[in-house]
Amino acid sequence: MLGICRGRRKFLAASLSLLCIPAITWIYLFSGSFEDGKPVSLSPLESQAHSPRYTASSQRERESLEVRMREVEEENRALRRQLSLAQGRAPSHRRGNHSKTYSMEEGTGDSENLRAGIVAGNSSECGQQPVVEKCETIHVAIVCAGYNASRDVVTLVKSVLFHRRNPLHFHLIADSIAEQILATLFQTWMVPAVRVDFYNADELKSEVSWIPNKHYSGIYGLMKLVLTKTLPANLERVIVLDTDITFATDIAELWAVFHKFKGQQVLGLVENQSDWYLGNLWKNHRPWPALGRGYNTGVILLLLDKLRKMKWEQMWRLTAERELMGMLSTSLADQDIFNAVIKQNPFLVYQLPCFWNVQLSDHTRSEQCYRDVSDLKVIHWNSPKKLRVKNKHVEFFRNLYLTFLEYDGNLLRRELFGCPSEADVNSENLQKQLSELDEDDLCYEFRRERFTVHRTHLYFLHYEYEPAADSTDVTLVAQLSMDRSMEMHGIDFLVIVRIKWAF
């Protein structure tokens, strides 16, 4: 990247020289063409005709000026050749027409440089790198279980889809409830260039059930530890997100950070912004071992291929077994174990700038992660209080979250131009049926509604349905706006009530 910056500096210097040298030369000549307030011609013959003070010395001065002018012209021609060569080489830094350049922060993983979270020169063009191809698929893994987490995932996905410019592949580790809800949602949503795969979380319980966990996330809060074993063996890297995350930028910018990993760095994490791992929150507070303030695992970059080669499964299991002999249980689920492993192996971590995980729990240093709205990248509602957390700018963050909560997901059904995607049979059939309708028909809207597939979120609230043994259920369907509910705002949805009909 230094080569790119130097090349651009040379290009700028050459351009300024090409403009300034002729101007300076003519100013010099123009000022030297006056003697005693009278104009002096550069031509010897003209000088002899108009100036009686013409001498051999002035003749030599003018000849030297003419020589200097010829030298300047030669320098200008050389500069023009240099500029043309620089312009010819410039496109080679852009990886062809299918590359997109993102403004990337200059991170090295050094905690002292990144602790404030804002890296100098973010807006500099010299900090830009074409590291994410236009149609490169970005892989995202999320652990989700239950009704409430399913709602949170939808808001998270909306924020990602709103900003994204790349195809996405979601890997959802879900229990049976979340899989039923989210599979129906994505099937009826039909978002182009989005693929979703599900992995049965219930089958993974035995991998982590031996670890006592006091965190409110329960056993599912430990499942990020087994992603190297759960996700496909040919998947090399993945972004892992908690369900209480909101994106304020294109996720491709975070994906691009993988290219900054060096050596044995396999984990990309943001430093924890509370004093939890410092052990000074209350008397006799005894947290799990951590490197400094520790790291928060709400946003993780995982280099899966290298982790597998390092035998990650064995590494974290041995660490957890040893620490549990004294700690007895985890307080922050997988985060405690990740930090214990990093404490012993600090070379594994690449420290991300903290604006990639602005943690809105009580008593955090999250305000040091941003100076302006444009600095915000990822917001993490990691307090049990969620939207009711205390923070100086919580009103802004809350409004941003509610914007995506209330956002019409149908507006995100937009194509990624120039990126081929797998054909969706249902979507193609729907478009074909709609194209056959006559828009001038007075009943067009009614006929269109017959074929319209509505984005369907099953069991928006917790509901345990037990079908009647004699199949006498009656389904009542009604429509209302969510502003009539005590908990939500401004979303139109269908309420389906099943009533056991008594004969």
TrEMBL record:
One of its GO terms (cellular component) is Golgi membrane. GO terms for molecular function: UDP-glycosyltransferase activity. InterPro entries: Glyco_trans_8, Nucleotide-diphossugar_trans, Xyl/GlcA_transferase. Residues 43-69, 81-109 are annotated as: Disordered. The chain crosses the membrane at residues 12-31. Coiled coil: none annotated. Its main location: Golgi. Residues 59-69 have a biased composition (Basic and acidic residues). It catalyses: 3-O-{(1->[3)-alpha-D-Xyl-(1->3)-beta-D-GlcA-(1->](n)-4)-beta-D-Xyl-(1->4)-Rib-ol-P-Rib-ol-P-3-beta-D-GalNAc-(1->3)-beta-D-GlcNAc-(1->4)-O-6-P-alpha-D-Man}-L-Thr-[protein] + UDP-alpha-D-glucuronate = 3-O-{beta-D-GlcA-(1->[3)-alpha-D-Xyl-(1->3)-beta-D-GlcA-(1->](n)-4)-beta-D-Xyl-(1->4)-Rib-ol-P-Rib-ol-P-3-beta-D-GalNAc-(1->3)-beta-D-GlcNAc-(1->4)-O-6-P-alpha-D-Man}-L-Thr-[protein] + UDP + H(+); 3-O-[beta-D-GlcA-(1->3)-beta-D-Xyl-(1->4)-Rib-ol-P-Rib-ol-P-3-beta-D-GalNAc-(1->3)-beta-D-GlcNAc-(1->4)-(O-6-P-alpha-D-Man)]-Thr-[protein] + UDP-alpha-D-xylose = 3-O-[alpha-D-Xyl-(1->3)-beta-D-GlcA-(1->4)-beta-D-Xyl-(1->4)-Rib-ol-P-Rib-ol-P-3-beta-D-GalNAc-(1->3)-beta-D-GlcNAc-(1->4)-(O-6-P-alpha-D-Man)]-Thr-[protein] + UDP + H(+); 3-O-{beta-D-GlcA-(1->[3)-alpha-D-Xyl-(1->3)-beta-D-GlcA-(1->](n)-4)-beta-D-Xyl-(1->4)-Rib-ol-P-Rib-ol-P-3-beta-D-GalNAc-(1->3)-beta-D-GlcNAc-(1->4)-O-6-P-alpha-D-Man}-L-Thr-[protein] + UDP-alpha-D-xylose = 3-O-{(1->[3)-alpha-D-Xyl-(1->3)-beta-D-GlcA-(1->](n+1)-4)-beta-D-Xyl-(1->4)-Rib-ol-P-Rib-ol-P-3-beta-D-GalNAc-(1->3)-beta-D-GlcNAc-(1->4)-O-6-P-alpha-D-Man}-L-Thr-[protein] + UDP + H(+). It is found in: Golgi apparatus membrane. It is a single-pass type II membrane protein. Residues 44-58 have a biased composition (Polar residues). Keywords: Glycoprotein, Golgi apparatus, Membrane, Multifunctional enzyme, Signal-anchor, Transmembrane, Transmembrane helix. In the N-terminal section; belongs to the glycosyltransferase 8 family. In the C-terminal section; belongs to the glycosyltransferase 49 family. This is LARGE xylosyl- and glucuronyltransferase 1.
